[in-house]
Each structure stands twice: as structure tokens, then as C-alpha cells.
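Shipment paperwork, digital attachment
Item: protein structure file
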Amino acid sequence: MRDVILAAVLLWLMIKAMRQPWIGIMGWTWVSVMNPHSFSWALHTLPVAAAMAGSTFIGILASKEKLNYFATSETTVLMLFMLWMCITLPFSFFFDKSFDLWVRVMKIDFMILVALAVLYSRRHIMALTWVLAGSLGFYGVKGGIFTLATGGSYRVWGPSGSYIDGNNEVALALVMTIPLIRFLQLNTPGKWMHRGLSAAMLLCAASALGSQSRGALVAIAAMALLMWWRGNKKFQMGLIFVVLGVALITFMPDTWTERMSTIKTYDQDSSAGGRINAWWMAFNLATHNFFGGGFMVSTSSLFALYAPDPLDVHAAHSIYFMVLGEHGFVGLFLFLLLWFFVWRSAGRLYRDGRKKPETQWMSDLGAMCQVSLVGYLVGGAFLSLSYYDLPYNILILVVLTCRLMDGKVKDTAPATPALTASLA
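Attachment content:
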């Protein structure tokens, strides 16, 4: 029955996408971020994402609506980063393995550009936020309930076969999702909806802690600090954060506390030592190879050449050193420049959106996107999620909202806050 329902939903989305390509973008995002077909016995091996993308392209060709081609600082740097990854590909040490991941990354980035050309209205922005929050919030609520039910004795893991299948990766994704849920709470009417979204945020936080990811704990702390700094009622908000934080941490078992305490003694931790060794390997590799080593450089042969400890082979576990090792200093510069521009635009939304009541939602979105980016940029320093979809979808939200605020597109679609109303 589950397979039948899921297949029917996916088929319905594909049919709708052929008439309204923006719905295809929502379907692609849902499939790409959540991997719902992984829950199906019959669909998990099928190219569902490719089928959704194909339906969207048919809709683009058949639709009478014009695509919104435009260039911003963010889109220009993203395309330059994509171009640089194409340039570095032939110089990969392991071309076959690099090519497979290159194809995957190019698909994600290309669909990000397609989404920027198709989406334009507040309804589209709200719908995309609901899709992102709902897709990852599902795992957050599920993992949070599991953590509470087991007393935090077992780790929370992400969906198998996805970018976030590891405990560290799913934790960071959930940390980044919490601000998006908060934005929806601020801009969605209804007492019970507010309570439900509050529960979702708490369960996502519990799930992130239940993953026993030290990077996620640091990311949560950084996000909470920014949210407190941006809040109007600092004393009340600070008190709430402290009470909730103490309650969740007290609930966790001693094994969790012992693991988190190793943050202070990272120099004595073998895992942390392995990461630092991998960071030096990436730095040395980029120093000796202008184009980097290509994708998939965590191999014994390259560690033997460039690592301080050639026998301690680890993945970089850092978005920064991952890009540095794979695409050199030019790639790292473009990667950092991209997120600098996204951060700057989100900050402009936060400041300028407060000037008018009708644009307050833009200010809320800019603020929460910055909070989410803090989680990514801080937590990502310890995780290999350089090409994960979610940050690039936040780029979409920021860029599209800036265009709306600047009056560069005419919002002809009605502003409906809920995804269900958007798809009606």
C-alpha cells in the first residue's frame, strides 16, 4: 500500500510538472533532499529524480510562462564554481571515481540554476521552504522521538544511500532545518500550527543531539548565539535557550556527555587527529597541484604522498578542506566567495525587510537563512557536505526574495503560506 501511495504521489507531481514546471521543481527538491522512494520496495532502484527532472523540462518547454534568466553575484559565482569543477575534472588523480561524483554535483547545481529561472513569487518561495522543512523535518521528528524513547542510548542516522546517511551529516542537515521551521512558524497563522512547528524544532534539536555529533553541537551553539543576538527580547530568549538546552543535555546518557567532552581534548582524540591529518593532506595536495586532486582524494596512495601521517587515511570531514583538496585554492576561493555573497544578501533582506510591514516576512527569511548558514559554515568545518543540496536551496530562497524586494520581478501569484494551498 505504501508503494502504491508513493507512486501515485510521484506520478501526480510529474503530471502537474508538465503543466506547471514550478511544481516539478518542488518535486525534484523533495526527491533529492528527502529520498522518499528509498522507503519503497519497488521504487528505490528507479531513477525517480531523473524522471521528475524530465517532467519539469517538458513543462518548461510547454509552458507559456517565460523563464527568468538573470545574473546576480551568487549565480555568477555558482556558475564559475561549476565551470572550475569542469576544468579540474580532467586533472583528477582518479578520473573514473571523480567523474561519477562530478555528474552528481553537476545535476544538483544545474537544477539549482533551473529553479532560479522557474521560481519567482512569494508562493514559490514559501512552497520551497515548506518542502525543505518538511523533507528534513520528517527525519528530525522521527529521530527526535527515537532519541527520547531510547533515552539517547543509540545514535540517530540519516537515510541510507543519501548525502546525509551518516550520523554527523544528518545532524548538520537537521540543525540547518530548524531556522527554516522557525521562519514558517513566524509566517504561518494558527495556534495549533505554531505548537506543531515548535514541537518539530525541539524534536529536530533532540535528533541532532541524539546523533552524538560533536560538530552538530558546535553548530547548534553558534546558531543559538546568533538567534539570541538578533532577538528583541534577549533576556527571555536567552532564558528559554538555557532551559531547553539544559533539559535536553541532562536527558542524554553519560556516553553522550563523555563523547561531547572530547571537544576540549581534541588533541588526544584519534578521530580528531585523523581529521587534522586529512586537512594537512588536502593543503599539501593543493599546494603541489594547482587544479587539486579531483573528487575522491581520500586514498592511501595520496596520503602516502601528502599527509604528515601516511598511514592515517581519513576523509577531510570539512567542507573547506574537502573543496581545497579536490579543486585547489581557486576552487576554495570560489566556494567561500559564493557563501559570502549569500550571507550578504540574506543580511540585506534582514535589514531592509523590516522597513515595511508587507516585507517583514522577507526580513524573517533573511534572518533565518543567515542562522541556517551559520550552522552550515560552522558545523561544516567538521563535515564533508560541500555539495549537499540544502545550502544551495537556501541560496535560491535568498536570491529570489532579494529580487522580489528589489522589484525586479512582478509577483503575480497569490501569497499562500501553506504548501498544500500552493499546490491546489
